[in-house]
TrEMBL record:
<feature type="binding site">
    <location>
        <position position="153"/>
    </location>
    <ligand>
        <name>NAD(+)</name>
    </ligand>
</feature>
<dbReference type="GO" id="GO:0019674">
    <property type="term" value="P:NAD+ metabolic process"/>
</dbReference>
<feature type="binding site">
    <location>
        <position position="161"/>
    </location>
    <ligand>
        <name>NAD(+)</name>
    </ligand>
</feature>
<keyword id="KW-0963">Cytoplasm</keyword>
<dbReference type="GO" id="GO:0046872">
    <property type="term" value="F:metal ion binding"/>
</dbReference>
<dbReference type="InterPro" id="IPR002504">
    <property type="entry name" value="NADK"/>
</dbReference>
<keyword id="KW-0521">NADP</keyword>
<dbReference type="GO" id="GO:0051287">
    <property type="term" value="F:NAD binding"/>
</dbReference>
<keyword id="KW-0418">Kinase</keyword>
<feature type="binding site">
    <location>
        <begin position="123"/>
        <end position="124"/>
    </location>
    <ligand>
        <name>NAD(+)</name>
    </ligand>
</feature>
<dbReference type="GO" id="GO:0006741">
    <property type="term" value="P:NADP+ biosynthetic process"/>
</dbReference>
<protein>
    <recommendedName>
        <fullName>NAD kinase</fullName>
        <ecNumber>2.7.1.23</ecNumber>
    </recommendedName>
</protein>
<dbReference type="GO" id="GO:0003951">
    <property type="term" value="F:NAD+ kinase activity"/>
</dbReference>
<dbReference type="GO" id="GO:0005524">
    <property type="term" value="F:ATP binding"/>
</dbReference>
<dbReference type="InterPro" id="IPR017438">
    <property type="entry name" value="ATP-NAD_kinase_N"/>
</dbReference>
<keyword id="KW-0067">ATP-binding</keyword>
<dbReference type="GO" id="GO:0005737">
    <property type="term" value="C:cytoplasm"/>
</dbReference>
């Protein structure tokens, strides 16, 4: 669904944010020569993000809860979350873009020293072993113990939007955006060897308890925010906050996720 404000392209105010790379900086210069740009993002109707998927995730988290949609153009590598970079017709493309509203995951990580750190994730929250020793992790869902003593390199909880990212590389399922589920996926599980993960309702609260933290230290990562030496991690969907992302109709995220399921 396209936001009505975006149909008024003559009055459309855009602000530009960009990653610190030569390609992104060149793109900023090209756009500023063609279009009026707001210096203050708070006065803009739309944020134009120039960079790769990592920068797009940072931008979505930065503007989450502001009701400002983000239209990304790829100046990185893969650009799964981005539109093609084309200068011509930018305002027309934004005006006709498809809007997608994403609820992030909130990670609450408690370290072995008792510190508590929180972070938001658009794609996934992952736990990783920090040394040569495999991690041992207990998993609870809504307070119920579901798997004790998972021996692994790690484990992750992915949103549908992130299911084609690291989750897919870890052999997790691709999840359609409207499915209303999260993907719980082990990373190189050793015991139980045949456990391939689970699909959970989006409203589920997932807890990871790390065993033997001194011998088998584990870090937790929410997208690109890392917390070292964790003993407990709780994850739930942040239902009261939303990130708004814009896609060209022919390259919307739902279609990309569908195509990935038939990719060879």
């Amino acid at each position: 669904m396209t936001d009505p404000i975006l149909s008024k392209k003559a009055d459309l105010k855009i602000a530009i944010v960009a990653s610190d790379t030569p390609r992104a900086k060149e793109a900023v210069s090209a756009l500023r020569k063609r279009f009026p740009v707001e210096d203050d993002p708070s006065t803009a109707d739309v944020i134009v993000a120039l960079g790769g998927d990592g920068f797009m995730l940072q931008t979505l988290r930065r503007f989450i809860g502001t009701d400002k949609p983000v239209y990304g153009m790829n100046r990185g590598t893969v650009g799964f979350l981005m539109n093609e970079f084309v200068v011509d017709g930018l305002l027309d493309r934004i005006a006709g873009a498809v809007q997608l509203r994403l609820h992030p995951l909130r990670m609450r990580a408690t370290t072995v020293s008792g510190d508590v750190e929180e972070a938001l994730a658009i794609n996934e929250v992952s736990l990783f072993r920090e040394t040569r020793q495999a991690a041992q992790i207990d998993i609870r869902v809504d307070g119920v113990a579901r798997l004790n003593g998972l021996v692994c390199d790690g484990v992750l909880l992915s949103t549908p939007a992130g299911s084609t990212a690291y989750n897919l590389s870890a052999h997790g399922p691709i999840v359609p955006l409207g499915a209303g589920v999260l993907a719980l996926t082990p990373i190189s599980a050793f015991r139980p060897r045949r456990w391939r993960g689970a699909l959970l309702p989006r409203w589920a609260e997932v807890e990871f308890e790390v065993r033997d933290t001194e011998k088998r230290p584990v870090s937790a990562v929410a997208d690109d925010t890392e917390v070292r030496d964790v003993r407990h991690v709780a994850i739930s969907e942040e239902r009261d906050r939303v990130a708004i992302i814009l896609f060209d109709p022919e390259h919307n995220l739902e279609e990309r996720i569908l195509k990935e399921q038939f990719a060879s």
